[in-house]
Amino acid sequence: MSAQRVYLPLTESPPAPSAPMPGSPAPLPPAASPAGGCKSKRGCGSRGPVADPQIAEKIANHPCYSADAHQYYARMHVAVAPSCNIQCNYCNRKFDCSNESRPGVTSSLLTPEEALAKVKHVASEIKQMSVLGIAGPGDPLANPRRTFRTLDLLARDCPDITLCLSTNGLRLPDYVDRITDLGIGHVTITINMIDPEVGERIYPWVAFHGKRYTGRDASKILSERQLAGLQALTDRKVLCKVNSVMIPGVNDDHLVEVSRTVKGMGAFLHNVMPLVSAPEHGTVFGMTGVRGPTPQELKALQDRCEADDGAEMNMMRHCRQCRADAVGLLGEDRGEEFGRQAFLGTQVAYDLEGRQRTHAEIERSRAAARASRETLRIESGGTGRPERVVLVAVATKGSGMVNQHFGRATEFWIYEAGDGWARLVQTRDVARYCAGPSECGEQESVLDKTVRLLSDCAAVLCSKIGPQPREAMDAAGIEAVEVYELIEKAVAAAGARLAGPARAEVAQS
Ligand code: CLF
Ligand code: SF4
Description:
Blueprint: H1 53-59, E1 74-77, E2 86-87, H2 112-125, E3 129-134, H3 144-157, E4 162-167, H4 172-181, E5 186-190, H5 196-199, E6 205-208, E7 211-214, H6 215-235, E8 239-246, H7 255-264, E9 269-274, H8 284-287, H9 295-306, E10 327-328, H10 340-343, H11 352-376, E11 390-394, E12 401-402, E13 411-418, E14 421-429, H12 446-453, E15 459-462, H13 467-475, E16 479-482, E17 485-486, H14 487-498
Parallel strand pairs: 1-3, 3-4, 4-5, 5-8, 8-9, 11-15, 15-16
Antiparallel strand pairs: 1-10, 2-6, 6-7, 11-13, 12-17, 13-14
The chain binds FE(8)-S(7) cluster and iron/sulfur cluster.
The site of FE(8)-S(7) cluster has 17 residues, from strand 1, strand 3 and strand 4.
């Protein structure tokens, strides 16, 4: 579990762009001129500029739809939907839906009224919480009464919270009107295939209209319903994200096609997530030895989906595979602070004004960070990607700063770094990517795992690092840089210095 992260840079004002912190890398060269190395003609990923102002407004404070927003705004999930109507081979039904959660995680179920009480309580404690999602523990639309009752209550009592839904899509066409009537502006559909031949290796059965379908028929029904639901939602201007679980040897070669198809149907964002697979999860894939991808394999596939000769799709790169009762910034889980005893039996007034003040403060901080980037001419998306970039890992507690001690980091944010370029391309969880005995022996230390996790990075940026990990990083050819700075500024500075011909280049997407 991640350590609690900070929300606002207000107490940690970023230094002025002209005043490098002690120990920071060499300053950027003035007015770095974009070399135009990006193969994508559109904005690269969710950090790329969004031209449509209505869409820009919709993603502005949604931590999943905007990588920038995820540094400042929190989400919460309420676990109100226990049942499911399909079976995925990466899911053990004793636990949460693995479509937006890692296997082996159990959330405690709430009634809609309990969910409302919890949301009001959390909204007053974590005013940066901007989005409420329903993502399980089963499928929200397999539990329509509970799901829509919860959303009705929230729309009535929490007017400033964005409502979000994640579904396997089987029942989606039946509820498109209900979703739009409620003003739900963001829907995620997990689409792992568009070819039933691939699907029959992922889905053993689907329950539809009172009948259980198996084999190719099951996947055909599921795929048709998913795509019909997606099209109906995008026709109604609901912003849709597609999640896909990357399952090596099963659908990895197929997901570029999925990306192309859902883009053609108007999906805004594609989130390719790694299969998390181990025998102790009790899933079919876990018990039959189907492994999850390495971070490098995942990134390569995301790059292919995004590339011009791939699907040219807008990719989400910062998903944390949250649990169905997750609370907090992505990458942290404060669910334990908000157990039943914290919110049941208490009357919480909804502090709309206090929340609005907090959000206004966040927007001021973001504007200051944007201004710094512009002054420094650092781009994080679009067509300005230089020819040469390297990967740089960042330890952060949030708020847009390199501000985490190396030894306390439970995850690293991976950036493409180059001259005037800093783009978030992945987050790597130190524990999550310990994929089991085939890759790492049981005796492997956290430090060894971290070295392996960052093996393709040219540098790691952190607020502090001890002598032993520094030595290990040095031995692995990863430069350890102590710096307390705006992330983009520190990353671009490292990139300008390190992305020379002597370094291994990142594969160009
Ligand atoms: Fe939740 Fe999902 Fe809405 Fe986000 S999560 S329902 S879109 S508010 Fe986000 Fe979590 Fe990844 Fe989901 S990081 S698992 S993509
Ligand atoms: Fe499990 Fe979710 Fe798949 Fe249902 S849709 S079987 S809950 S992973």
